[in-house]
């Protein structure tokens, strides 16, 4: 019973860490949309951001290189989906609002449980599937799907990015449980830099005029939002259910939408309100499912401990 309580306490700690990541990532698109894109095109932003993240994570991971083995090569598989999602998002944000961008990113929630089912043969509970369906409907509503909203290129790219993030979350949860976080992410970030460089140099064109305030802001954003928060998120993912992570992440969309409305980047609409409400409902359903599963596990552990004490 004590072990079960300790596990629950640790879970709460990692859940708080995930909430912190949600808050930071919720504010990040507004900074990029409202400040960085005034000076630089998405291609340069993508290239600069990935370079900063790769170098920073490389410095952090150098002392951990002695732990490298073939298991870390899975980071290249999950990293491909991360890279594709990042590229899609950078170009999507230029063509849509931060609120729509943030919610459509959370299409990952519908991918994760079924991909994990395929990888682990562990069938997700009805409540987990229900939370994912609600999250999917939330994304559709926020994009204007029920109100005749235009499904432009930005909306489509946001949706694709969300699905790719789902593959990254599920793959990380399955393959990286016992791997060092910094070394695992180092491989992902360097792969992201290589793929982004190839894409930008061959398929995108941008002009560069130095604006040191914007560059300094981008460096700070990448070190804090990408490097630190990705390390924290990956660590939390090792101790939390992957479906929970995929469904809790829509809270970043709520944060983004609120600030986006405050700063005039989005307008309050029925789609935004309904989408935000459904997103929060999907989180509540997922948490109820987690609580029910934890209750069953704790009850089983308590019975096992009682049986052991009686036999002794």
Please mark out the parts with pLDDT under 50 across 5 or more consecutive residues, or reply none.
1-6
The shape, in one word, is: globular
- Average pLDDT, rounded to a whole number, is 77
Profile the largest sheet: none
Radius of gyration: 20 Å
Number of helices: 12
Structural class: mainly alpha
Distance between the termini: 17 Å
How many E-type strands? Answer: 0
Helix/strand order: HHHHHHHHHHHH
Instruction: Give the strand content.
Output: under 5%
Helix proportion: over 70%
List the helices and strands and how they pair.
Layout: H1 2-34, H2 42-61, H3 74-93, H4 98-104, H5 108-120, H6 126-142, H7 153-175, H8 181-203, H9 212-239, H10 242-248, H11 251-262, H12 270-311
Could you explain the architecture of this structure?
This protein is mainly alpha-helical and 312 residues long. Helices cover 79% and strands 0% of the residues. The chain has helices at 2-34, 42-61, 74-93, 98-104, 108-120, 126-142, 153-175, 181-203, 212-239, 242-248, 251-262, 270-311. The longest helix has 42 residues, at 270-311. The chain is globular.
Summarize the structure.
With 312 residues, the chain is an all-alpha fold. It has helices spanning 2-34, 42-61, 74-93, 98-104, 108-120, 126-142, 153-175, 181-203, 212-239, 242-248, 251-262, 270-311.
Key descriptive features of the protein:
mainly alpha; globular
